Amino acid sequence: MKQAAIHRNGRGRRLRRSGRRGSAMLEFALIFTVMIFLTLGLFELGRAAWAYNTIAYTARQASRYAGLHGEYQPATDADVLQVAQASAIGLDGNRLTTSTTYTPDRAYGSMVQVVVDYPLPYILSPLILKNSTLNLRATATAVVTQ
């Protein structure tokens, strides 16, 4: 049976050293890895919430534009997409897609619905998942006023 080595420090006290020298470093490495992934996960969650808020704002702006350009100066789908891309500050506008639906038509008092889709890539996807994205969708409705 192996006994723990006993050493004396500078003050005459005896110190015990057991055979578990690396256990603190191993525990730190395990806890640190978990804490890093939790921190990055929280960062990713905050980024997704920010991106969704931006997409919702983009859908509102695009539906306002489509509502103001209904009957007399009709807005095309390309115009609505251009307004959405200009409103999506901080996101890649080339990845945005929009769909515009008028109910029942483009006449005064009709409803216009704009749906904005955006595939948000994960930051950690090269490390964990291959080419994975979070598909965000926001819908906004406005009344055609002109």
What is the secondary structure topology, with strand pairs?
Layout: E1 5-8, E2 14-17, H1 23-68, H2 77-87, E3 97-103, E4 111-121, E5 133-143
Antiparallel strand pairs: 1-2, 3-4, 4-5
Helix pairs in contact: 1-2
Key features of this structure:
146 residues, alpha+beta, three-stranded antiparallel sheet
Describe this structure in words.
The chain is of the alpha+beta class and 146 residues long. It has one domain. Helices cover 39% and strands 25% of the residues. The chain is built from 2 helices and 5 strands; from the N terminus they run ββααβββ. The protein has helices at residues 23-68, 77-87; strands at residues 5-8, 14-17, 97-103, 111-121, 133-143. The protein has a 3-stranded antiparallel β-sheet with strand order 3-4-5. The longest helix is centred in the N-terminal third of the chain and has 46 residues, at 23-68. The mean pLDDT is 84.
User: Strand-residue fraction?
Assistant: 25-35%
Strand order within the widest sheet?
Answer: 3-4-5
What shape does the CA trace take? rod-shaped
Biggest sheet features: 3 strands, antiparallel
User: Radius of gyration over alpha carbons?
Assistant: 29 Å
Termini Cα gap:
92 Å
Whole-number count of domains: 1
Q: Kindly state the mean pLDDT as a whole number?
A: 84
Helical stretch tally: 2
